[in-house]
């Protein structure tokens, strides 16, 4: 079963569906670990845009200063939070309804509903914020030299809100069609690299910090325009205007979005709210700097988060398809994904945490104040990655009401932890630790729910051996990284990358069972994860 190919996850990523949709092939293909592996490869490449973003952050700090970067981080965090509220959950809704659509007309109806209810409210909110920018500006703590820029920046940058909603929904629509690689050009070439290029050009042109906001809008506008072309390959635009606008698929999409919305909002709170809280807690430039420091720690820790996100993107539509066929297929890919995540995320987090001082040196001496926050977030993201794959499975196999439990409890725990700690320890460390506790709790609860309610859990007979071997590799890699971190930064940084790559390879090679390694296909053979004796 593990050796089968599932065309739904991989094939014809760029072929138009036309009259013959992908469901014609998918209906006859089992959803297996091989399906996950094929989708994962292209999705990881697509999410490498996050790595490009991480590389760009030190350049932004260098060009615009830590306080200026902090203002940008606060405004982008606010845009992300608002978008996750007013897109009404439409990105997640399509992961449930599109894979279960019976025809191209139904899939187009889901896309139409998502665009209307996802982008429309964001346009209205952006217009309102533009009108009331003068009243909102004083709420932000910034450096004195940046104060005159705040209101114009809000009026400019708020239009990233509908653009970002459109991009998020468009790329989600592609993933819902199980086309996992289509984001590569958008997320890396256009959105991230062009943002960096535009920022550099505007900075050289004397625009100052304002140029960073304009650069962000330019990159999003280009990404949105190009996403239309990709959508046209996977959805029939003619069908967007056909059929009843209040049909069953439209209603299912709308209500699925609303049911998932609270969970989405709370998940985004853990990523962006801490920067806003720190900005409010500390006055003036200190508030902007603290928001910038948290954002730096969050961006660096997102290297580990990338592992979970890549699997989440693949698991949601595959689990929906598997659930339609056989619950045992869901259990199989759930356990497989958890083993693979553990083998990658644990050693990666340990190496990055041990080398955190060298990593933060990229952002200047001021960034060393974020070391404790970075270490906390790295290990929290590792635990979240191992447990967090349960969330997309829960979204597509369980009743809607079960999806709120983890979000509500997770945010309540984080708020309570923050209330107890802030004021007794450094605000940056306290807010970060509260966030980390909430992340772990929110990831663990869906795992328990699936085990208790759905009788699904990922910890089969193979997992203990994988965990023990993986932890052994993690400890050795962490010690090696600690020694490397003592060296001068120009030597330590490339050495840390080598140690991280070696640790992941060792964990994959010696922690995973043969069937899991074999499911990686050509990648396993090229990386020598399968020896001659295994073939």
Automatic annotation (TrEMBL):
Keywords: Cell membrane, Membrane, Transmembrane, Transmembrane helix. The chain crosses the membrane at residues 69-88, 109-134, 154-176, 188-207, 276-297, 340-363, 369-394, 406-425, 431-453, 465-484, 490-512. Signal peptide: none annotated. GO terms for cellular component: plasma membrane. It is a multi-pass membrane protein. It is found in: Cell membrane. This is Polysaccharide biosynthesis protein. It comes from Sphingopyxis alaskensis (strain DSM 13593 / LMG 18877 / RB2256) (Sphingomonas alaskensis).
């Amino acid at each position: 079963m593990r050796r089968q190919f599932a065309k739904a996850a991989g094939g014809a990523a760029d072929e138009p569906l036309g009259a013959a949709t992908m469901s014609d092939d998918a209906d006859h293909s089992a959803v297996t670990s091989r399906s996950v592996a094929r989708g994962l490869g292209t999705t990881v490449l697509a999410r490498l845009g996050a790595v490009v973003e991480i590389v760009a952050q030190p350049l932004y700090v260098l060009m615009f200063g830590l306080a200026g970067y902090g203002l940008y981080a606060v405004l982008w965090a606010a845009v992300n939070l608002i978008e996750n509220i007013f897109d009404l959950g439409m990105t997640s809704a399509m992961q449930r309804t599109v894979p279960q659509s019976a025809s191209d007309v139904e899939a187009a109806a889901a896309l139409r509903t998502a665009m209307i209810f996802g982008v429309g409210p964001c346009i209205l909110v952006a217009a309102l914020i533009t009108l009331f920018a003068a009243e909102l500006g004083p709420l932000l703590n910034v450096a004195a030299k940046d104060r005159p820029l705040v209101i114009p920046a809000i009026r400019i940058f708020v239009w990233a809100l509908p653009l970002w909603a459109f991009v998020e929904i468009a790329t989600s629509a592609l993933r819902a069609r199980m086309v996992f690689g289509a984001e590569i050009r958008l997320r890396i070439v256009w959105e991230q690299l062009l943002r960096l290029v535009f920022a550099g050009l505007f900075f050289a042109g004397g625009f100052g910090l304002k140029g960073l906001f304009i650069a962000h809008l330019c990159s999003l506008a280009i990404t949105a325009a190009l996403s239309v072309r990709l959508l046209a390959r996977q959805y029939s635009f003619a069908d967007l205007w056909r059929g009843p606008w209040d049909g069953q698929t439209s209603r299912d999409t709308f209500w699925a979005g609303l049911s998932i919305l609270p969970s989405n909002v709370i998940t985004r709170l853990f990523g962006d709210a801490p920067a806003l809280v720190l900005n409010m807690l500390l006055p003036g430039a200190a508030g902007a700097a603290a928001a910038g420091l948290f954002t730096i720690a969050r961006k660096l820790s997102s290297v580990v988060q990338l592992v979970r996100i890549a699997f989440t993107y693949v698991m949601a539509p595959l689990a929906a398809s598997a659930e339609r066929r056989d619950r045992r297929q869901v259990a199989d890919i759930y356990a497989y994904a958890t083993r693979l995540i553990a083998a990658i995320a644990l050693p990666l987090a340990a190496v990055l945490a041990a080398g955190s001082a060298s990593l933060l040196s990229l952002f200047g001496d001021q960034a060393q104040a974020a070391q404790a926050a970075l270490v906390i977030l790295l290990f929290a993201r590792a635990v979240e990655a191992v447990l967090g794959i349960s969330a997309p499975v829960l979204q597509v196999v369980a009743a809607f009401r079960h999806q709120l439990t983890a979000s509500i409890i997770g945010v309540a725990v984080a708020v309570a932890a923050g209330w107890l700690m802030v004021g007794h320890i450094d605000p940056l460390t306290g807010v970060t630790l509260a966030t980390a506790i909430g992340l772990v709790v929110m990831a663990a609860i869906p795992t328990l729910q699936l085990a208790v309610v759905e009788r699904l859990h990922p910890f089969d007979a193979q997992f203990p051996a994988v965990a023990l071997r993986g932890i052994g590799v993690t400890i050795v890699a962490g010690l090696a990284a600690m020694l490397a971190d003592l060296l001068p930064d120009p030597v330590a940084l490339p050495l840390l990358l080598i140690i991280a790559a070696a640790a992941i390879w060792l964990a994959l090679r010696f922690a995973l069972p043969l069937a899991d390694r074999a499911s990686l296909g050509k990648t396993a053979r090229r990386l020598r994860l399968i020896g001659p004796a295994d073939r």
